[in-house]
């Protein structure tokens, strides 16, 4: 047959289109990119969350509250979990803005997916739309454990690396938490590890060197950059807040300070230009032997409290 000898492809090299050569074309019919091979690159689509009506929930107990929302223990279909719901305060808040903020927080959590970050379970809706979201039920926060004398030196030390891992994961995705503090780090119900919670102050970034002048969520732990009224790196601010959190907890819960752990944490309290990243903390500072840490320990370390806490109320300066 005559066509049997015809070449299927023209002679010479012809590039095959693929993801690296993809050029989107928008069509009036679809309103989206049109292409015939490969997949367009870009931000991955955020995973969806199932929806529950507020009327389907039975609120069992209040677990905590912030400026815009209240967290409850809830029950639905025989399962217990936590729900973070808008707290409507006429004249003080913008309900639509609060709803949108909780919706964004839930979607952000759904996309993070890390062992040491609280897991979003569902969106909670009412007749006006999304009013909050469900999340896994955790145990005590570091703040709560410290306030009743249950934050032993061993438990405190075991929480440092998981916190750094959670923040390093977020920073790799260019998201800053900006509200790292004892109340926002919780033990799991089984006390096997800790998880980072409360992402309403979280800030997505365009690049790792981005700076901002927006105030962070944790106003008790302000880095030297913010105190100097300078633009600051949100990622570096997370690192400072992590160092502040654990240094504070050591100083107010331990009679004999864990000097080795304090020395490991001290670089996080340095100015931004010498402050290590969370990944650097995991790869270097937290891996050093105790002997090396003691050898490299500086003569003095940053003191976050003005004086030693009084024995009758050791947590006043941290949580009061």
From TrEMBL:
Q: Which Gene3D superfamilies match?
A: Phosphorylase Kinase, domain 1, Transferase(Phosphotransferase) domain 1
Q: Where is the Protein kinase domain?
A: 57-316
Instruction: State the source organism's domain of life.
Output: Eukaryota
What are the start and end residues of every segment in region (Disordered)?
1-49
Pfam families attached to this UniProt entry: Pkinase
Q: Which GO terms describe its molecular function?
A: ATP binding; protein kinase activity
UniProt name for this protein: Camk2d1 protein
This chain is encoded by the gene named camk2d1
């Amino acid at each position: 047959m005559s066509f049997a000898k015809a070449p299927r492809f023209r002679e010479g090299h012809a590039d095959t289109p693929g993801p690296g050569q993809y050029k989107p074309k928008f069509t009036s019919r679809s309103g989206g990119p049109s292409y015939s091979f490969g997949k367009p690159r870009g931000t991955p689509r955020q995973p969806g969350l199932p929806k529950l009506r507020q009327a389907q929930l039975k609120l069992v107990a209040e677990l905590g509250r912030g400026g815009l929302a209240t967290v409850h223990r809830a029950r639905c279909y025989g399962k217990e979990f936590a729900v973070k719901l808008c707290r409507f305060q006429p004249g003080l808040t913008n309900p639509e803005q609060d709803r949108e903020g909780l919706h964004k927080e839930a979607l952000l959590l759904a996309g993070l997916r890390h062992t040491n970050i609280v897991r979003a379970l569902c969106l909670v809706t009412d007749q006006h739309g999304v009013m909050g979201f469900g999340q896994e039920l955790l145990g005590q926060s570091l703040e709560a454990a410290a306030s009743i004398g249950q934050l032993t030196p061993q438990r405190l030390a075991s929480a440092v690396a998981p916190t750094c891992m959670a923040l390093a994961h977020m920073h790799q995705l260019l998201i800053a938490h900006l509200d790292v503090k004892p109340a926002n780090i919780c033990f799991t119900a089984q006390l096997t590890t800790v998880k980072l919670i409360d992402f309403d102050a979280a800030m997505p970034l365009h690049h790792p060197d981005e700076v901002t002048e927006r105030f962070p969520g944790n106003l008790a732990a302000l880095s030297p950059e913010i105190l100097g009224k300078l633009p600051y790196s949100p990622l570096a601010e997370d690192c400072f807040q992590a160092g502040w959190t654990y240094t504070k907890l050591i100083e107010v819960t331990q009679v004999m300070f864990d000097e080795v752990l304090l020395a490991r944490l001290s670089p996080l309290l340095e100015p931004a230009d010498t402050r290590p990243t969370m990944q650097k903390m995991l790869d270097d500072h937290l891996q050093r032997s105790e002997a090396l840490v003691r050898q490299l320990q500086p003569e003095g370390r940053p003191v976050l409290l003005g004086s030693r806490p009084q024995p009758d109320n050791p947590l006043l300066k941290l949580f009061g």
